[in-house]
Amino acid sequence: MTSIAIDPILSNFVFTANLIMHLRAPASSGPYEDPPNRPWKGVLPLVSALVPVFNERRESILATTKCLAAQTWRNLEVLFIMEPEEADRLLEARKHVEEAVTLLRSRGIATKTVVTDGKLKLKPHALNYGLKEARGEIVCVYDADDSFPEGQIEDAVGLMMEKGYDVVQPKIFRLGKALVGRYLMLDTFVWQRKYLPTVHSWAKVFPLSGEGLFLRRDALEEVGGFPEVLTEDAYLSILLAERGKKFGLLDSEVHELAPRSWRSHFRQRLRWFRGYLTCLHRMLKAKIPFKSKLALLIPFLAPITCAFGLITWAFFIVYWLTWAFLPHPEFTAPWMLHWLYTNAIAYWSAFLAYIGNAMVVFSYLHSLAGTDMERSAPLALIVPIYWIFIGAAAITSFFKSTKFWGKTER
Amino acid sequence: MRSATRRVMTFLMNIIKFLFKERIELAIFFTAFLVEIVFGLYLIYRWGHTFACGDAVSHLYIPRTVVDNGPYSNFANIGTVWLPMFHLLVMLLTLIDPLYTTGFAGTIVNALATGGICVLLYRLIGDKKLGIVASALFMGNAFTLIYGATAMMEQTAVFFMALAAYYFKRYWDKDDIVEFMNCSLALIFGTLTRYEVWAVAFLVITFFVLRELNNGQSYRVAYAHLPLWGIFAWLFWNLAIFRDPLAFIHHPLMMLRELPSSPLSIWDVVGLISQNLFAISGMLYFLALISMTVILVRKKFLQTVVSSILITPIPFIAWLSFLGFHSGWVRIYYMGLVGLLISSFYFARGFKKMLRITVVLVILIAYTIGPITETSPLTIGVVTASPRSDINFAATSRLKEEVSAIKEVISKQSVLMSSAPGTPGAHSYAYYSVFAASSPSLIIDDHDQELYLMAMKEPWKYCSYVVMEKTSADNPKINIINDYYQGRYFVYRYYADKTWRLEFLRHYELALETEHYLVFRLIGGT
User: Fold this and answer.
1) Which of A381, B265, B473, B495 is the most buried (most CB within 10 A)?
2) Are residues B177 and A378, on separate chains, in Cβ contact within 8 Å?
3) CA nearest B41: which of B32, B31, B50, B52?
């Protein structure tokens, strides 16, 4: 349908590429590697955990702090990174951080508070400030409101040391009880079970997420620290891939709170899409193997895919409404008379529209089957409605600045 | 080169390993497949083709019109009355003329289906020796031989049913919803192959919902709609192409079916059922009835569920006969044969040693009574004894001779042909295309959309030849079709509209008259 409306090829290509991801059997473990047996018997490198806390609630900071305090890995330092306007000791925000620092110190974990110059209110800018102060051989990043198991740092470091990985990423799930949270959870679940394993198996690299991200400090410094763009995590994966760094997936989970409302989710998606457009631009110029480039292209094309998705659904509805109420609706663009269109592209489009969409819904249900997420199966049935919402965010993202952070309210 | 061969071999070996769990399964599959292929070759040797009846001819013609119909080649030609799955599976094979004209394209697809059914039967029974005996009995059935070697849809539908039953059993055993999704996929394909499988889909959903509610997992009911996706797809196809989701019911071909004028009495239905079941399974159906009761009393619910799923076409078609919607062809009852076999063998599994052997012997005796008394091995492939059977190789062969004579007259000129079903079963254009090796692109028929409508109105502007079936103006069939084409049906007009007939005869002369057809040639050449 989009073929009829906008272009005869591109929308079909992006949809087909995404459909291929769904054809893969869901990865329960697959590329996600088990950590070496605990306790890790090799050398114990110092790990610096960077936690940006700008504009965070006390409960959110404490949630992450408690998980860090419970870690089995003891050669750890934690750096809370603040913006100057919150750094005053009399302010509530500073008090919350001080409380977290006290808690960690009481457990014998070296903890620091780092204040940025406040010139750029982007997460990567804060992280680079933290990096300057960090002493660890390995750097990990957590956000406020993250929760993760007590052995996660030990498992990640063990895996990095044993397999020689430069980057290790656990599974990230965004939880929420409201409808928006459940949909986001559904989306990230499919991302973790289908997309990420497929991209990893093809490209040996994958778009990184900013929570629970483990990096070797030397690798990070080689690419000049965290790139100061909206989606620094995904952008970083391109820079690291260019230098041939090894990526690993850890079979462990980080749970993050989902956005509080649809509005907040919309802002989050806007940020991701704008960031992905920057990544896409960089990716096209990247000097990485062609196969890896193709594999990374699929997730980085997400803003375009989702935008086409919305346009497709809009035309779909218009087409069927006119079909139902007009005797002989005619949608004939000049290219539609070409033999290639009538013999191939029309069938390709029809396949994607009618069978492709059904296959994606089937794939969602298949991903949930046999997991704790099975209860979300009813939501998966109406997931195309959620795509319309995501499509709106994708289209809006083309008109927004790439400098505006748009922090997610949880 | 060696490396490429090795890769291909490795690929094939991986497929075999994926499909077959044991070597015995591979042996069962290839034995069944080869038996059908050899039987198909025998039919070609005996009759020159493998078409058991007229419908089989149409089942190859329809998919060919999708890919070889000149400017009117498109998927809409899949049509509305017959479900599309078999046509899609056989489509590419119909492009090879020797496979198309002999019907061997259908033999290949159904031989594969027969092999698959035998393997699934073996797996479902879950006992090596009993599984092998059950597969052999199924394979040795005269109807299996015929429907596994001719281009009919039943065998493919039975395969999908057996596949669904197999996955449903795994789901039940392991409480794994992924297995239910696999079962649903099999049912999606099955419901797009034969309408009888629609009843199976509803039954599977009922079992699934009851089980999940009973287990307190009501959220899993969200998966219950999956087996219906094939049905939804078919309704949507009918809506999109024919502007009526029930076009497959409202189509004149369905109206033309020789239905009983009124619902049958319960005794007529019982007579019909026992007559057809005896034809396909001897007295096995009686034993199956006892077996089902026993396994249910023994609370072997899974065995009861699997047997019920596979037997469903029998009570479903009997019910339709009772309501007067279906005349109850024996081949529909044949679709329940796997269920009859499996329930009897589940019954046998309940015994040990000598008792088990005794039950198997009883099954053998009960099963072979029918074929011995009803179908002589020497007449296999000619006609079966059941009055409800449409297997008739001799009749299709006579039609082959008739259309070959027509082809000699027409050669490679374009021809307008009727859309009324001929005798026996299929449309004249299907016989003409298949038996006379004529491309559908040379035939103007109802697969040519507006061209057909224009050519029916003024054939002299569009084609050199017209093949008219021999009939009369009071034939209700041509009246119904004429109504469908809003008064433009050329056969009706030839017999009922004197003015049009005179105009027609001003342009055409009779070139040939055969038993069923009149062949007209355009006066003054092409």
Assistant:
1) B495
2) no
3) B50
Cα separation, B287 vs B364, whole angstroms = 11
Per cent of chain B over pLDDT 90 is 65
Confidence label for B378 from pLDDT (cuts 50, 70 and 90): very low
- Residues ≥6 apart with Cβ < 8 Å to B284: B340, B341, B344, B363, B366, B367, B370
CA of B211 vs chain A CAs: smallest distance (Å) = 16
Look-up of token digits 């509610």: B213
Structure token digits, residue B137? 């009995």
User: What domains are there in chain A, each with its CATH number?
Assistant: 32-260 (3.90.550.10)
CA distance A225 to A217: 9
Counting as low any pLDDT under 70, the low residues of chain A are 1-8, 27-30, 89-90, 327-332, 401-410
Residue carrying structure tokens 């004529």: B438
Of all helices (H) and strands (E), which one includes residue A76? Answer: strand A76-82
> In angstroms, how far is the first alpha carbon of chain A from the final one?
37
Predicted ipTM of the assembly: 0.81
> Which structure tokens are listed for A366?
């298949």
pLDDT in tens, B284-311: 999 999 999 999 999 899 999 999 999 9
Higher pLDDT, A343 or B341: B341
Q: Residue B96 and residue B478: Cα distance in Å, rounded?
A: 34
| Chain A residue closest in CA terms to B234 | A354
Name B95's Cβ contacts closer than 8 Å, sequence gap at least 6.
Answer: B64, B67, B68
Asked if B507 contacts B464 with a C-beta cutoff of 8 angstroms, the reply is no
Residue B347 CB contacts under 8 Å (≥ 6 apart), including other chains: B287, B290, B291, B294, B295, B359
Largest CA distance in chain B: 82
For chain B, the straight-line distance linking the first and the last C-alpha, in angstroms and rounded, comes to 54
Residues of B whose CB is below 8 A from A354:
233, 236
Q: How many CB pairs under 8 A join A and B?
A: 34
